[in-house]
């Protein structure tokens, strides 16, 4: 991208028009700082209120797209819609229940061995995502290799209907098909988002389809943190995002 184009985007970002843009946020590492145990996550100070204000001022053109279960983060976010499990847990979906039941039945038998493995590495965590699972080792950095290997073996046992999603100190296994880009497109088809330009914020590899989808709609991709994700703009982390949002709302 030329220097000129970058400058244009930076200007655009500084004066984002709340009547013409839509906003999509990943949760962990984007709105909330990463923590050793994902269960202990929280939103920084003013952020929940600022997101609610952003949603009100954009007339509802704000959504969260996370790898977590929707129910884990939705209570922190008021009326803002949340797509969970990378989009496969989309607000209003009920038709997939049967499919999820089949997926869960396939995953169940593999959990006990992984639970034993995690128990042998204090600080490591097995996250049961229903139709998927994640191994976390932020709290057990020495176990990175053994956790990665276990994830690879689990994926091999599950077969081609499943895929691996690597992230920061996490390996996640989930069904092939949905990703965060699909979720962004689905939101963009809804009246509150349609005809706006999406601005997407993410910090990890699982956000790439969402960042790309935002660009495909003529929008802006914003990367957070140290990962070298392809993006139009960068912010240092959740605190920088919260500061930007608060400043933008005050303008
Ligand atoms: Mg993230």
UniProtKB/TrEMBL annotation:
Name the keywords, alphabetized: Hydrolase, Magnesium, Metal-binding
Q: Which spans are transmembrane here?
A: none
**Alphabetized Pfam families for the sequence:** Trehalose_PPase (PF02358)
Q: Which residues form a coiled coil?
A: none
Task: Write out the pathway annotation from the protein's UniProt entry.
Answer: Glycan biosynthesis; trehalose biosynthesis
- The record's EC number reads 3.1.3.12
InterPro entries, alphabetized? HAD-like_sf (IPR036412), HAD-SF_hydro_IIB (IPR006379), HAD_sf (IPR023214), OTSB-like (IPR044651), Trehalose_PPase (IPR003337)
A Gene Ontology molecular-function term? trehalose-phosphatase activity
Q: Which SUPFAM superfamilies match?
A: HAD-like (SSF56784)
Q: Which cofactor does it need?
A: Mg(2+)
| UniProt record, GO biological process | trehalose biosynthetic process
What reaction gets catalysed by this protein?
A: alpha,alpha-trehalose 6-phosphate + H2O = alpha,alpha-trehalose + phosphate
Q: What superkingdom heads the lineage?
A: Bacteria
Q: Which Gene3D superfamilies match?
A: HAD superfamily/HAD-like, Trehalose-6-phosphate phosphatase related protein, domain 2
Provide the family line.
Answer: Belongs to the trehalose phosphatase family.
Functionally, this protein is described as follows:
Removes the phosphate from trehalose 6-phosphate to produce free trehalose.
User: What PANTHER family would the database entry show?
Assistant: TREHALOSE 6-PHOSPHATE PHOSPHATASE (PTHR43768)
Entry protein name: Trehalose 6-phosphate phosphatase
Annotated organism of origin: Paracoccus shanxieyensis
Q: What is the lineage of its organism?
A: Bacteria, Pseudomonadati, Pseudomonadota, Alphaproteobacteria, Rhodobacterales
